[in-house]
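Co-fold these.
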Amino acid sequence: MDFEYTAQEHSFREEVKVFLKENLPPKKERGKNFLQSWLEKVREKGWVGFSWPKEYGGSDGGLIEQTILREEMALAKAPPLGTSFMGLAWVGPGIMQYGTEEQKKRFIPDILDSKVIWCTGYSEPNHGSDLASIQCKAEKDGDQYVVNGQKIWTTGAPFAQWMILLVRTDFTVKSKHEGITCLLVPMNAEGLEVRPIENMAGDKHFAEIFFTDMKVPIENRLGDEGQGWGVTVSALANERSSIGEVTQMFEKLENLKSLVKSLKIQGKEAATDPEVRRTIARFETKIAAMKYNGLRYLTKQIRGEPLTSETSVNKLHRDSLEIGMDDFAIELAGQAGLQLRGGEEAIDGGSWAKSALNWPNVVIGGGTPNIQKNIIAERILGQPKD
Amino acid sequence: MDFGFSEEQNILRDQVKRFVKERCPMSRVREILETENKFDQALWNEISDLGWLALIVPEKYGGLGLGWVDLTVVLEETASGLCPLPIACQSLAATAILLCGDEQQKAKWLPQIAEGKAVGTLALYDDPNWISSDAIFCQATKALNGFNLTGVKPFVDSATFSNWLFLAIKAEEELILAKVEKDQCKVRYEPTMDETKITGSVDLNGLFINESDCMVLSQENLSALTNYGAVAVTSEMVGAAQSLLDLTNSYAKERIQFGKPIGQYQGVKHRLAEMFVDIESFRSLCYYAAWAVDDSPSDVTRAVSLAKGYASDAFAQIGIDGVGLHGAIGFTAEYDAQLYLKRSKWARPMYGDSNFHLDRLASLGGL
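Predicted complex below.
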């Protein structure tokens, strides 16, 4: 057991720190053109798609360096390394693994250069958690597919340019996991209509999407016909280190403590209330558990030991913290905790109230807690499927 | 960066697992608990020969000079079978001598502890639920070449079969750690819920202790020993909780109700998943605390409170659910699940309950 970093890792961390010091001004001083120049600079450093192979424009970055990079970026509250979260998280890795040479050349550079935002067309009106039951239909017609059907809750669809889309090309299969095909679709395709949906926080990040005889050329198919489920599963399994999240959660915990110190409960300092103190400490134990679970799993990966679905453990912690911390904050702040930005009594500019309504982004997206528990019980503990 | 066990540590783990399976299975544990003093000298000799009692004792005192990470492996695996050998007590006695003893005391006592010739234990606090130097009530009054003791130490682990009891005692303004031989004093067996952890009280009234059998117990060392104790208990909690999950998990695959294994119902399988999440989590925190003890003293207090603060409540719930998910069979004395529930209750207050550790975390975190 050793929590020390090698000299090389130390110097990498130092390099990241120096870069951040020189290139990341405080939030208030970031001008209009900041984001564009930031994206160009981190791209130049090779930190976008850092773990990707060099031949595709990545840096072949090792697991520990990735962790260091994420940690330092989160500590500095830096903006993301690219504008397409999904492009970097799974579309790119999926294309590298399953794509044709032509697809790789066509799509990978634009993801790395933040030229294209991707969204993910998985959920349907009748199939969210039960992802493999999709009904959105694609029929082959010569050298193209004709797609009809609907997707919903598609995060990022209102502003994405491309979508990775799961369709059913075969309705006669015995297992629902067969007969699914993965297509890469431009959002301006004819026959594709996006209708944004407002969420409970008042944002319009996700949407319904309708396909009416939308034509997708065969060269836009990712992987073989009928093999879309395999593509999806391995794309989603792409290493999901939680270290950046952990750093953000610790940061949020500090903000929560500052808030607690400024509040009173029934006329007494909230920070002296034992229940308040213990609740905060319990949050800390969970965040720390995420950190050290993550490091244990990282060690396993480095040693080449098999990981099953251990990331579900941290996802469940993240979910309960995501709901719990904001809710605790607004409860403590009483009626003031309810006020949004613009409210005379709003706490921290209404940011707690706003994020207290945003937890489903994290908690429902990426697999609900119930699904995570199924995964743990079935894949790790070996219980029979529902 | 490597947050995992070494090859040697994994070999040690396999060795302990084998010992538990072959030499101290639950049937043997139950037999030991039926004996009069609930201590198996033959098994104790075996683990002494295996070197488990010498792990954390430095080589110059006849030990192996390893660390708490290694000890954690042994404590976790022996506790997975609720093995009633007092390895944690022995290791805490060794640690107390290392921290508080002078050179002569170390040279005299540690080799016997490392070899298992003497069975040692440590008792710090006299209040049932208070971690503080003010919670040490037994008194020592200065006399010629030593101290006269008064009071009763009410909560002494393994007291009935330990040869050397290292007891925290108030000596006017300071604290001492007195080495009391069991034969010198009256030890009373105190029945508790968890029979695999033997508790006794020690009547010190009328006892005289030589100066050479006393060590100064500084505030700093009192806190340190509390932290070590919490790491030892938490390591055992990891092993015991994992065993109860394994037991419950297997049962849920076999028990058929309404035509299906009960593990197929989400009411059961989700609770199993939650148990897994909690055990994984306090396991990681416990290993981190053990590492901090060995390699990063400034992190120890926080690391310990993270681990024990998490584990105390989580294991208690796992104990209840482990028994509960079994249905009536879990309630049966003959069945082992109930023994783990009892361990979860035993472990909860030891070296600080969750309230103590959470309060400490809040203070450390600036609240």
